[in-house]
Design brief:
CATH superfamily of the largest domain: Ubiquitin Conjugating Enzyme
Number of domains: 2
Mean pLDDT: 80
Strand content: 5-15%
Low-confidence stretches: 153-160, 170-210
Helix content: 40-55%
Structural class: alpha+beta
Number of helices: 8
Number of strands: 6
């Protein structure tokens, strides 16, 4: 693997953040495993949603594409229930010249402009082509339930050691403390029982890792 290139890509994404997406390492020091956060594009069925992606880089990267999966449930003709994405640059049209910034932008564009003529979910592809209003209504409701409400409603109550184990497993302890995105703080972790908001990304990540 070209570690030097991957390091450069990651640092650039951190140094010059994009308004539509951000990335973090799942485990500090492991450049081959990222988690991305994508905002649902405005004026689309996904507007207001927050979507989390799991990104792993094979040993042959950049000669072969990264493996990108949606962790947050999403209804989309080109993304199946397992989170797999039907995107040409992640398959036969990958080039070593492409970088992760382009991959993430392409995923954002796919949310804006689905391709129902080449679906992974045939039923959604047909609905998108034949009854677009019904398609929009279904997707908006799914987005509201799984990418907006769900990200705010899940919670777990765990003790000090369980909290540390969970966050270590997720590789998110550093990120959670620094950003305070999960409503936690170092004092709460050190003192004992902690109520930790659990975004849908973590819920599905736990399922993914189990």
């Amino acid at each position: 693997m070209n570690t030097k290139r991957l390091t450069k890509e990651f640092r650039k994404l951190i140094r010059d953040p994009h308004p539509q997406y951000s990335v973090e390492l799942v485990t500090e020091g492991n450049l081959r495993h990222w988690q991305a956060e994508i905002k649902g594009p405005e004026n689309t069925e996904y507007s207001g949603g927050m979507y989390y992606l799991d990104i792993t880089f094979p040993e042959e990267y950049p000669m072969v594409p990264p493996q990108v999966l949606f962790l947050t449930p999403i209804l989309h003709p080109n993304i199946d229930r397992a989170g797999r994405i039907n995107l040409d640059i992640l398959r036969g049209k990958w080039s070593p010249a492409l970088q992760m910034s382009y991959v993430l932008l392409s995923v954002c564009m796919l949310l804006k402009e689905p391709n129902p003529d080449d679906p992974l979910v045939c039923e959604l592809g047909e609905l998108c082509k034949n009854d677009y209003k019904a398609y929009q209504k279904m997707v908006r409701e799914h987005t509201r339930t799984h990418a907006i409400i769900a990200a705010k409603s899940y919670s777990i109550v765990v003790g000090r050691e369980e909290t540390r184990k969970l966050l270590t497993l997720m590789g998110l302890c550093r990120m959670a403390i620094r950003k305070n995105v999960y409503g936690m703080n170092t004092e709460a972790v050190n003192e004992g029982v902690l109520t930790l908001p659990l975004p849908v990304s973590l819920k599905h990540y736990l399922m993914y890792c189990s």
